[in-house]
Amino acid sequence: MTQQPVATSNKLDAAVLKVAGVVVLGAIMSILDVTVVSVAIPTFQSEFDASYARVAWTMTGYTLALATVIPLSGWAADRFGTKRLYMVALALFTIGSGLCATADSIGELIAWRVVQGLGGGMLMPLGMTIMTRAAGPHRIGRLMAVLGIPMLLGPIGGPILGGWLIDTASWHWIFLINLPIGVVALIYAQLALPKDAPEPSESFDFLGMLMLSPGLALFLYGVSSLPEAGTVTDTEVWLPMLVGAALVVSFVLYSFRPRHPLLDLRLFRNRNLTLAAVTLFVFIIAFMGAGLLFPSYFLQIRGESTLTAGLLMAPQGLGAMLTMPIAGMLADRVPVGRTVPFALVLIAAGFFTFTQLGTDTSYLLLCGSLFVMGLGMGGTMMPIMTSALKTLSAAEVARGSTLVNILQQIGGSVGAAVMSVILTSELNGSRVIPGVTDPGTGAPVTEAQLAIGVQQQPELAQQLPVPPSMIERGLDFAANSFATTFWVAFALVLLTFVPAAFLPRRREPSHLLDGEAGDEQPRTPVPIH
Fold first, then answer.
1. What CATH number matches the domain at 264-507, 1.20.1440.230, 1.10.10.10, 1.20.1090.10, 1.20.1250.20?
2. Between these two residues, 525 and 338, which has the higher pLDDT value?
3. How many CB atoms lie within 10 A of CB 109?
4. Deepest in the core among 3, 191, 224, 235, taking most CB within 10 A?
């Protein structure tokens, strides 16, 4: 591919900053959209009269779509050109956002979230490629600092922005707000990004993609159907799980054959990459899955507004903002085996508080625990990613980055599905209220469902002939259901200490900056979002 001329100065000149502005706009849209939706899940539940497990697919579908297009973006950039493809990704994300706002059912919303994810998944890999070419490898550190701004602000600003939009307008606006940003980004990209000449290179593993993505989606769909079906013997549960598992196993067996597989599983021969990938995967399942539940607790158990719930989530982002830059600096000097376990201790300590949740747990304690968890998260993600890629040869870095990024998205999808299924199953165990049915579906109403409804709409307590003690009992049951789900997440966090104990404790030579790198640049992003 034709390379853009790069400057030799270490400073980021105006031309590079102009290009970086385009990429940061795309990153802001992509990252904010993950965190904004987290506070809207209870709203979607009441709006579409759907279970938590079903609504969680607005996140699961989005992250599975991200995982699908991450490996596709490198091949497509070579074939169609980075500028053209980046603008297509922006347009797809923006159109998907507009369509999400028109959804009349939870099925429609999930479908349009997948469209959004297909665009959003390409924004970060392509953005990194564009910035690397504009500035050259010697200024990657400075560029990462620029791209780190939306990565740090997203977890803080997303829930607050989402809460404010839902409270002052409606849930539709968490998607509609992307439309003007997307239009500005498209015009900016057309004017600022340099033209490039596409030159098709290696072939793309379409067969692998057709096995992995549908396989994961089917398997997780079967898992998420379990609370409603009530038994694993239900056809809607076991059939998609069986077909999905067969597709995933077939993908693993097949992926060792092609010269350029969708995921190069041969890289797992590298001990450091394997340990880092396993640590990251288990950690992401726990952290991302449970992360969806934090705002829901504030909204459904404590009866807070969505804006307040977003503000209560801010300490976690602030904690990560403090430690992420420090962890990035230490990653090059101190072996991750000496730093990551300490960060995991902070996460475990913060998580433990949520296993003790009640209906009146101190906000000071909860916000302090979120802050401690944020400190731990900032010291975990980037060092593990660095460790995974550090000892790979230059020719393997792009494939290694793709592998770890996809594992992260798959972990997020699995976490969202599993934690939502556990919570829904726990809530379904509440007592049914005799003679009270859901006016929309005619289904029986449980004490926990009624208590959550009253917390969000206090007027329900006057409309229904039930004693206050029943509502109080239902609320206690719901709080215990959240606590039980957090116990599972806490156990998974403890499990990450096993692979983390084997992470490198001595400095090892890095191949990322050696002479064999040549002109090859990673096509996929080093940062994780």
1. 1.20.1250.20
2. 338
3. 26
4. 224
